[in-house]
Amino acid sequence: MEYLTILLSLISVRISSITFMKRSVFMQLKWHKFTMVSVTCFILFSLFASNIIKPNYSHAATSWSEEYDATQGTLHNVETENADTGYFGNGYVAGWNEDGQSVAINVNVPSDGNYTLVFKYSAAAGQATRYLEVNGEGSVDQVRFSGTGSWGDWQTTYLNDVFLTAGTNTISLSFDSGKGSENWLNFDSLLVKEQGVEQLVSWGLTEEAELAQKSLTSNFWNTKTNMFNNQYPNDESNNQFHYWWQAHAIDTLIDGYERTGDYGYIDQAIALYKSVKARNGDDIRNDFYDDMLWMALALQRLHEYTNNPQHEEAVLTLWEDIKEGWSSEFGGGIAWNKNQLDYKNTPSNAPAVILATRLYEQYGNEEDLQWAQDIYNWLQHTLVDPANGLVWDGINRTGDGNIDKGWEFTYNQGVYIGASVELYQLTGEQGYLDAAIQTAETTKDRFSNHNQIIYEGGSGDGGLFKGILIRYVTELVKTEDSQVKLAEWIVNNAKNVWNQTNEEPEILFGSSWEGAINLPVELSQQLSGVMLMEHATQLEPIIVRNVSQTLQEQIDSYVDDSEITSSLAKKLSNRLEQVDHHINKGDINQAIKHLEDFNKHVQTGVEKDQVNEIAYHQLQGSLDRIIH
What we know:
Blueprint: H1 2-17, H2 33-51, E1 65-69, E2 74-76, E3 79-81, E4 92-94, E5 102-109, E6 113-122, E7 128-134, E8 137-145, E9 155-164, E10 167-174, E11 186-194, H3 206-220, E12 221-222, E13 227-228, E14 231-232, H4 243-260, H5 263-279, H6 289-306, H7 309-323, E15 335-337, E16 340-345, H8 350-363, H9 366-383, E17 394-395, H10 410-427, H11 430-446, H12 465-479, H13 484-501, E18 521-522, H14 523-560, H15 566-585, H16 588-607, H17 613-623
Antiparallel strand pairs: 1-11, 2-5, 3-4, 5-10, 6-9, 6-11, 7-8, 7-10, 12-13, 14-18, 15-16, 16-17
């Protein structure tokens, strides 16, 4: 009864806080009774889940910390400002984009040891990098700062394991183009804190993925429009219709269904599609070829689970319209916009390859396969750097025939990876897989910061970019599970962002997957975060299975070389058999428990001289990927 009272109170608060979208024409949609009940129950449970059953994650407190105003440091060739609010101290360092500019801050720490440095900054011009020195010695060539939505959007990034001596130390950030420094940056403050042991998110992220989905519904779903609001908290921004954001929302709901089998996700996706079409003048097409591709890909997945001919018809209608965007100008390619047919970009071509390939697999129409191959070949030869697989954005945007090589976005890398994977799966041609792997490895290096967190910040449309990348890197790893380093990269991003978002009253995902979460949070940003959590759950079993296989290979070699006794090897192999058994059942938590038992047997084996020191340390190195 107490929970019911809490639930009703929460529902009342939620309903009273919603500002419904204003529309000139209101269309009353008649739902099937089952659909209406399913969606209503789904939303009620979302409120319950996100507000009542949210798990409690604790973080170990640090015993000492001190924050320093960057404007009080020693400044070289930089200015200070205080125009944007929300800064610490007297203002912030600004006008910082040239060699010879630096900020040096003297900090005092109580004892020798490793500390964490937390930099508060804003970077509205996009991601930036700076060179870090500690006590006059180079420490990190590129401290990477995610782009922020505005100069008043303050974010944080951190560095662990920075050794400082008791007393005064000098922390210096400099612009050094020779070491890769780039872009503008406003630097507000430096927080120095003793390095505590933070409780990491445990393996088995399905609960976190579910809570992320529930938050998406409880904080963004508008029960009057049957669409997602553009931001949380809701305001007048919902008067703007983001067709392609809603397409990715359909995709994200289907992710939830595929994880849980809960048809409520499909019911909500069906309702969303109906409302998007109605809001779009009862026509699923629009003037942007990339927008239509996102919608076609989402609806193709939806049709797979509904078998609704209306969804199938929408996909085919979109595809016929999309193909009209192809022309021979600049050698081929699909245009970005019906009103700018000579501008062709990656997001209007790579997703077309994915769609055409899937249509061929569904219907067996050879023409679709030819489309996929022709578009892919044009894209690869026109907008992909052959040296490293980096995917450029587009050609002839400004009418001068130039390629936007300076526009580097994660989603362009993602959709090219996805296109390559689809053609590899269909044809078996190794070149497609090699192309996907090359681009993925370049992306991991180029778009990760010093903590291996994807540091492309994003607001507006850019808020979706990282999530799109995650979707298609996941498809690559599922196709080629030897790419386990990519899987670990994504899962570590998920754990990092969950540690961050869990500190908020709601489960929210901001522009940065490392720094502060500032309200309002846009739907695009929230969708990327939910996609990250959903796809991390798909990759965890691949990582655990890989660790298990590595351990078994090590044990076999140790037995052959008499570095481990046969009795201990048998016990360890039995544990690994249980790991694989539970992974195959989809129970990753039980698999982890058996790895923990494996570790206990190894520890006992050391005490009894059943395993030598070299083998022991090698086994621990493999286990450290899972058990810390």
